[in-house]
Amino acid sequence: MSIEKQEQSEIGAAYLRDRSLSAAARGVLATLLSLPRYEVNSIEGLTRLLPNRRGAISTALSELEKGGYLKREMEKGADGRFKWYYRISAEPVFRGQI
After folding, report:
1. How far apart are CA 48 and CA 45, in angstroms?
2. Is the pLDDT of residue 8 over 60?
3. Buried b (16+ CB within 10 A) or exposed e, 53-74
4. How deeply is 52 buried, as exposed, middle or buried, from its count of CB atoms within 10 A (0-12, 13-18, 19+)?
5. Region of residue 82 (phi > 0: left; psi between -120 and 50: alpha; otherwise: beta)
6. How far from the centroid of its chain's Cα atoms is residue 97's Cα?
7. Residues 21-39 pLDDT 10s
8. Half-sphere exposure of 65 (CA within 13 A, CB side)
9. What distances in angstroms separate CA 72 from CA 10, 17, 64, 75, 97, one per listed residue?
10. Which residues contact 98 (CB under 8 A, 6 or more apart)?
C-alpha cells in the first residue's frame, strides 16, 4: 500500500465535522493527512502510529472510501506483482468513484 495525498496548502477540517464518518475514521484520516507523503506504506504501519488494531483501521479505511475521502487503486509493477495505492483527500472528492 502506498498513500498519495491531494496537494493542498491548507488542510480543511470539514471531515472532522462530517457526521457520516466515525471518530475512528476521522482519526485515521487526520493521521494520514498529517504525515509526509508516502511515510506510511501499509496498514501495519498505521498500527504502529495509532492505538487501533488492524481490523479497526481496515474498517476505518473502508468507511473513508465509502465517504469519498479515499480511493484505492491497484497497479501492476515492473516485477509483475500487484500493489495497492491509496489516494486520500481532506474533502470527499472521490465520492461516487468507487
Report:
1. 5
2. no
3. eeebbebbbebbbbbbbbbeee
4. middle
5. beta
6. 15
7. 999 999 999 999 888 876 6
8. 13
9. 23, 23, 10, 10, 10
10. 65, 66, 71
Record the pTM.
Answer: 0.79
CA 47 to chain centre: 13
Cβ atoms of 2 and 85 within 8 Å: the answer is: yes
Contact at 8 Å (CB) between 90 and 6?
A: yes
pLDDT of residue 9: 42
The C-alpha atoms of residue 56 and residue 50 are separated, in whole angstroms, by 10
Cite the DSSP H helix spans in the chain. 23-34, 43-49, 54-67
Q: How far is CA 31 from the centre of its chain?
A: 9
